[in-house]
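Progress report, Aim 2. The chain analyzed during this reporting quarter is listed below.
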Amino acid sequence: MESGQKYLTAVVKLFGPLTRNYYIRAILHAALAVPAGFLLSTILGTVCLGIASGIYLLAAVRGEEWRPIEQKPRERPKVGGTIKQPPSNPPPRPPPDARKKQPEVGGQVNPIPVEVE
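Predicted structure tokens for the chain:
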């Protein structure tokens, strides 16, 4: 759920079927469109409210109703729940003599011989 929706969801849930029912919303939008239609400057708003009223009426006829989207509690993933069968063989390792650390020889060998004059 978006952060801005949770406050509006609480208000809509508070008024119950008055705000949940799309027939009531369609009538409310149509009633708000009537006074706005008397002024030329609000004709566009009247048209928008009329279209919204028609959409709500169509949704109500089809049996739709507003239902809040609740945030589901997060489930913690089970540790080890995805492992079906643990490995039966140990991981491959080099032989014991190769595992011993080789002593480091100091310096590098210069491939070009250097002569001091």
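Residues 5-61 form one domain. The helical segments are 5-15, 17-20, 22-36, 43-61, 96-99. These observations will guide the mutagenesis work planned for the next reporting period.
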